[in-house]
Amino acid sequence: MARDVSFFLLGETRTKDATGQTVTTKTEIEAIGIQSSTYQNEFFQADQAGLRPQGSIKMNSADYHGEKLLGFKDANQNMTVYSIYRTFEPDNDWIELYYGSRVGNG
What is the C-alpha separation between 78 and 56, in angstroms, rounded? Predict the structure, then answer.
């Protein structure tokens, strides 16, 4: 069942400071998408790669910039973070992000 959801795209930007050192800044961009559950074949393929799929989110492709993590905040503002392990772009307007967690120590 699909539903609208608010989530956060988590990434990093790298810049040089005045001394030429690389400075990494974590980014957290709030986004809105349509969340869906994962199909059985997705579970099988993800399991083969050592992943535990949690679902997918379809969002506007212009808002996605290659982030590798996404997160959901609960009522207490605690964030649960997942890896984006696969993307699918059915057209130029939409992108689907498949997310989950690593199995074991991966």
Answer: 21
Report the CATH number at residue 86.
Answer: 2.40.10.270
Are 27 and 10 a contacting pair, CB within 8 Å? yes
CA distance linking residue 90 with residue 12, whole number of Å: 26
What is the tens place of the pLDDT at every residue in 70-97?
999 999 999 999 999 889 998 889 999 9
| 3-class SS of residue 21 | coil
pLDDT tens track for 6-36: 999 999 888 999 999 999 999 999 999 999 8
Domain that holds residue 30: 3-102
Distance, CA of 39 to CA of 25 (rounded, Å)? 35
Instruction: Please list the residues that pair with 6 across neighbouring strands.
Output: 32
Contact yes or no for 23/57 (Cβ under 8 A):
no
Q: Write out the E strands in 20-90.
A: 22-36, 51-60, 69-73, 79-88
